[in-house]
Amino acid sequence: MPCRRKPKIPPTPHRTIVLGSTQTEKFRSNHVSTTKYNPLTFFPKNLYQQFSRVANIYFLALAILQFFPSLSTLNPVTSILPLIIVISISMIKELLEDCGRFRSDRVANARPAYRFNGHSFAKTSWAEICVGDTLLIRCDEQLPSDLVVIYTPLPNQDFYIETANLDGETNLKTKQALSLVDSPRDLIDFLQRAEGRLMVDHPNDQLYAFNGILSILGQKEIPVNNKHVALRASTLRNTPYIVGYVCYTGHETKIMKNSTAAPMKKSQLEKLMNKFVVLAFCCLVLFSLFCAIMYAIFTSLHRSEPYFRFESISIAGQSVKRFITHLILFNTLIPISLYVTLEVVKMGQAMFIDRDIKMYDPDSDNPANARTSNLNENLGQIQVIFSDKTGTLTQNVMELFKCSVGDIVYGSGISEIKAGEMRRNGTDPNAEPTKGGFVDARIKEELEKGGKEADDLNQFFTALAICHTCIAETQKAVEEEQNTLLKPKSRIRTLLNLGGSPPAVSESPTLGSSLDSSMNEIDTSFLLSASSTTDNTSSDDHLPLSYSASSPDEGALVNAAAKQGFEFRGMKGDQITIRMSQKCAQFWETNRGQDKDAADLTQNEDMDSPEWLEDGTKLVSFTQLAVLEFNSDRKRNSVLVRCPNKKLVLFSKGADATIFPLLTDSISSHTIDTTLAHLESFGSEGLRTLCVCNREVSESEYEEWAGGWRAALNSMEDRDALVDLAAAKIEHDLNLIGTTAIEDKLQDGVSNTIFTLRKAGIRIWLLTGDKMETALNIGFACRLVDPSMQVIEVDGDKAEEVCNHVAALAHELASIPSCFSSTPTSANSSPFALLLSGQALAICLSPPVVSHFLSLSSRCAVVLCCRVTPKQKADVVSVVRTYTPLVSLAIGDGANDVPMIQRAHVGVGISGKEGMQAVMSSDYSIAQFRFLKRLLLVHGRLSYKRVSMVVLYSFLKNFSFCLTLFWFSWFCGFSGQSLYESWFISLFNLVFTALPIGLVGLADQEVRPDTFDDSPLSYALGMLGREATPRSFVMTILEGIWISFSCFFVSSIILADYIAPDGNAEMLAFFGQCLNLAVVVCVTVRLALHLNFVFWIHYLIFIGSIVAFFVVALFISIGFKNDLIMGEIFRVLGSFPAWLNITMCCIVALVPWYMGNYYNRQFRPTLDTIVREQALLDTNGKKKKEMKRKALKEKKKVAAFEGVQATSEVSNRTDANLLSMTLGPANRRSLLRRVEEGEESDVRQSLLESEEEGTRQDDNMGQIGSYTQVQLSPRGTDSKEGLTERMGTGHRGFAFSYAEKGGEKRARENGLTEENELYLATLARQRF
Fold first, then answer.
1. Percent of the chain with pLDDT over 90
2. Does residue 236 carry a pLDDT above 60?
3. In angstroms, rounded to a whole number, what is the distance separating the alpha carbons of residues 557 and 559?
4. Helix (H) or strand (E) holding 149
């Protein structure tokens, strides 16, 4: 964490660093501390954090009041001990986490680095580095601070860094050192005499922006930009060493500036729990107020009685004191252990997510990771998902699939999305996607034949081979790197440079020894030995290449060009080498069409002859003059080169919306229309498109433009804007060469995951930067958009037209139920899909239109937003989260998805190929989109149900225990007398009842997790929040009141003989212990009856909690010299009425709940109940079905050969019972009557028919998750008839009764439509 200091206004607009002398300003040290506390601030800061919780302040206030004997009848330990334990646990947790951060900081600060001391590079620690120091960084070492690099031994002053620790990207990035020194021999001498100043920006968090000017005495000023800077925590790769000046240190480095705290998120259940605490406090106040009023009444009625000793103060004053007394007495109504229990439970649930083998991706070796545990239950309540496309739904493995050059489309394959469309519309039911990528034999034929088409193809593929920022390396080097991943000090790859001169760094004895971290000093000998390894002149021109690209698109295009004979071989200095055929090389060597300046230049300079290779190809060199890099504003990149024929050519590629306005007016309308048609065709196949252009630049234009370009690069004010403006001055009048179409295949399981999530009632919004046609076809391919849906398109850039269009559509669809008010399952049944462009979306998010937009989108099953920017993604999530009650989840894989992920209720990052920034900013991370289904339907649903049970049960047990004191108040004149010893009150939450509910919160499950994965409809109940609601909380309070009432008065009746009529204190202590034990057993049994899954550990924990009561009671009875409780536990253990009391309390208190629960399961079952019971029926699997078939076969034989006879009353009863189980409880009375009247034949025949019908339905229905096989009829008579046809005769009565009697009401209560209610009844038949 960065230091939270108040920012100071910089005295100057820039930071000035003195080189070679003492600094004139004081800068921060390089010591880094990410801890929250230090030894002096731990207790005060942590206590402040602990008491920021209202519950802790409440218990502290009660503990203070208990120190006044006139206000409390309890020992202060009643509140002090639980508070100390809860706070101590939280403090220990914080201390352990902070100690881990401290150890990490200590290791980082003690890492070695090499700093120039005037004559050599001496070893020092990271913490001792200061601004202005000169550092030497060796290969595979991390940078200790932000450096402006001035020297590297590689040709062209290039060096390569890996920024995985910064942005998660493992692709190497090419950087360039400032050319201040020509050779390592001159480096030490330069550093000894160099004096000057380095002027840079003040510390900021812009990772990809840097402005500076380096001034060395005796030399001209040199502009410094982001290309010359290496940041802290990045790693040097494939470069022997670099030397640079330190510009930012410690907490002022860019990585530390970006280490901001993640936004605080609270789950919906946590917010609801806080309301429950407030309600519980209101109940506490009401009970205390009632007792205070009753005490006033009791006092006024008995003040004259001689045997009562009342205080001399007024009745009003005594009532106030009694109010405080009962407030203290009933303080356990609020469960202080709830927060600690929830924290432990959520941490355990997060561990289950981390260790779920079914969410582990072996290809990338990435498991699921819960980066926070506070939002586990929110995973079970997700109602809308915002998803990126590239890398999230797709593999982000790009491959050129088609292209168009000169009005001709090359590539005849069928994309994955196109094949799906052909199967869907019936064009080709057996269509399969083409494998092998871009294939077209016409390209080589055209290139060999020559002509205009060959020239167009030559320019097109040369542009692809030049206009990029890829790094070329041999396959051999890649394999060596993969074999040495576990040896970071020897991980030096061989990079191919121009003309076969790769900087292959060998592990010579000198270099190998120099890489030893035990070296204390590095001098000129090391620099020379390391630099000599870069002079390898061996030729690797025939070795196959691999490209390391900053984006998958660039890598795909460079690879495609190489496969077509235009192979990028690397760079040496400013020379780009392309290997191509002789005919293609001649095109760039000839002087056709040169302008006069270039022709004169060609005559005066000898043209370098390219090197001939054995296979007849040539290495052609292009001189790189300027690189106009891609950014989110320009949406294009360009490279200006000097060709072998001395022509200046600008190659550009970018999105069609950006390129088309820059095209020259000389392009024919036919070419434009044809290209647009090609782009639309490519988009309809789900392909990513780019336009490729070029333009010849005259020498005079270049000289005029280069001056402004250099001035923009040297500017310290608004450098990025000036550079973009300068680039725009040369990117005009472009000639369209062609277009590319890249395929990005869908990930495995995406279609099934989206289909399942939509069936669960979750709405999905697709936010992508693709065109509308591409996004729509992606939606069809991944089953996000159904073929039966009507697609509503909203496009346009005029605010008034878009506003009117959206308002009209919202009014037209107003009759369709909104997802904000309807059930989740019906929200996805809308027949409409909404498709918006980026321009229209920007208008829809404006205040005048946002209400109409939300109204329209809420009535569409699917929303697809196209051409959206990262900011628009975040704005969409913010609008939906702010103006709707929906619980949102955002999922993405790239840095552009970070704002969206942080704005949503839950953010999920995919550890894909676009780095780890999305993962580092997320709440949960997964490796593939298909794992989202299990994360939500299994872990989310179970976490929500478990946490809900923990919350409700915590209030239940506390009300059950505490209100026994309320009932006792009626028998002690509401004086505030306690029935229990103070230690029992303190340990009730911490010892007697803590472990069982913690175990249930961690391990309880209704059925096997895979059942929920196959039954998505059951997730809808969690979306509606049916487990923990204000109604369920009120019912829990009422149940707690009933349990306390039952236990108290049952104990009063059974133990009446043990209670002395004169109020003997020993008898009161015995009664209190018996009642306390009864309540502990009762609430424990109540939780045990609610279990859905029982294992040996449940018996251990549940029985152990009850045993803990006896252990504590024994300790108190023996260890405390209190005559009132001395030996009471032995009396309890030896008393039969005490054990009888426990049994009767459990029966009286729990039987009503059990009967109500049984009634609901049998006659008002929810879908959860059906899922669980179906799973229980399937536990025996094939064995149970086989036994059933054998029994049926035997019955048929008996009916066929022996006739139908009643052999005995026992057999009749057996058949009757079997048929009763088959047909249901409602038919048992009629069945027994028929058996008694002698209708055995009819009974047996009914049995056979019912068994056959049940067997057929079991086979057809399969598992409960396969509900799509059941065709639901419309409402009304057809539903009844359709249901009759699908159900056996013996089940119709129950189904019709269930569906018709109050079906609509229960549908609303359960959040299900009537059709789903009928379906539920269909599934329920097997229970009877």
1. 19
2. yes
3. 5
4. strand 146-151
